[in-house]
Structures are given as C-alpha cells and as structure tokens.
Amino acid sequence: MSRRLKLSLQIASDAKGLPAKSEFKTWAEAALQAGVKQAEITVRIVDAEEGQTLNRDYRGKDYATNVLTFTFDEDMPAIEGMPLLGDLVLCAPVVEREAAEQGKPLANHYGHLIVHGVLHLQGYDHIEDDEADEMEALETKILATFGITDPYAEEASADKAM
C-alpha cells in the first residue's frame, strides 16, 4: 500500500463498468510529480445532474463536464509537510459518452481524466498554449506507462491538417 497517496473513492452514480479503486489509485499515484511527498485525494463519480450542478455553481457553466478538480489549498500559502489535498469529480455519463465517441476503452478514458485532474491539483493548467503543451506531453508520457495511447494524437493530426 502506498504511503504517498491516500485515495478515497465515492460512487454517487449507478454507472456500470467503472474501474476498480486500485486502478484509480494507480493512475493518480503515477501523476504525482516528484515534489509531492504525500497526497490525500477524493475521487467522486457522479451522475449528470450532480455534474451539471457542480459545473454551474463553481465554474458558471451550465452543463455536465467530464472532470472537475477542486484544490483544497488554492488560496492558501504552501505549508511545509502538508499533503496535497483535493477532490476530483468525474461525471460518469459524460465520460462514457466521450469514450464511445472517441472509440477508446472506458477504463483508458477514466485513466486519462484521473491523470489530468491530478496534474491540475498540482498546479498544471492548459489555458495558455505553452502550458497546454507541457501538460499534454506529461499526460501522454504518464499514460504511455499503462499502455494507454496518446489522448491528444487525433487532435494533433486534425491541427496539422488545417
């Protein structure tokens, strides 16, 4: 058992085919960067209604999205020895729909979104192009260790065709 990551899994959805808690934990652990000594993360799997409510209330966007990241200490100064704390909320119907539309295994899409969310918890972002390039490259590298193909490969091919 990892002493580096304490992961809690909450399932508030009747979704079928969810990965095991051990898979969520393995993906999250892999996304923790070298400077993170300890982390406590809650992963909550929700239905569309809760996903939409959270996205509307916290981001001002009135639709369910695939993953939301909530950092505990976003507006607090770093405290030496304090673990990385945060929550990831994944909307099962959106994740399922995207996986089907993208022709990828459901578990691989969950893996990508966990890695993506855990990187956000550590301050990575994709608002600016250079930040997006850095974050996407890191995601791709981490996912490759699990045999998960580059989730941005199709997007990159489309960009080159334009």
Name its key features:
alpha/beta, 162 residues, globular, Collagenase (Catalytic Domain)
Please, could you describe this protein's structure?
The protein has 162 residues and is α/β, with parallel strands linked by helices. The chain has one domain (5-161): Collagenase (Catalytic Domain) (3-Layer(aba) Sandwich). The protein has 6 helices and 4 strands; from the N terminus they run βαβαββαααα. The chain has helices at residues 21-31, 48-59, 92-102, 106-121, 129-144, 153-161, and strands spanning 5-12, 39-46, 67-71, 84-91. The chain has a 4-stranded mixed sheet with strand order 1-2-4-3, sandwiched between helices. β1 (5-12), α1 (21-31) and β2 form a beta-alpha-beta unit. α1 packs across α4, α3 (92-102) crosses α4 and α4 crosses α5 (129-144). Mean pLDDT is 90; it is low at 156-162.
The total count of strands amounts to 4
Going by CATH, the architecture would be 3-Layer(aba) Sandwich
Instruction: Give the % helix.
Output: 40-55%
Percent of sequence in beta strands: 15-25%
Shape: globular
Uncertain ranges: 156-162
CATH topology: Collagenase (Catalytic Domain)
Between the first and last Cα atoms, what is the distance in angstroms?
A: 47 Å
Number of domains: 1
The SS-based structural class is: alpha/beta
Short description:
The protein is an alpha/beta fold and 162 residues long.
What's the arrangement of secondary structure elements?
Elements (H helix, E strand, L loop, with lengths): L4 E8 L8 H11 L7 E8 L1 H12 L7 E5 L12 E8 H11 L3 H16 L7 H16 L8 H9 L1
Parallel strand pairs: 1-2, 2-4
Antiparallel strand pairs: 3-4
Helix pairs in contact: 1-4, 3-4, 4-5
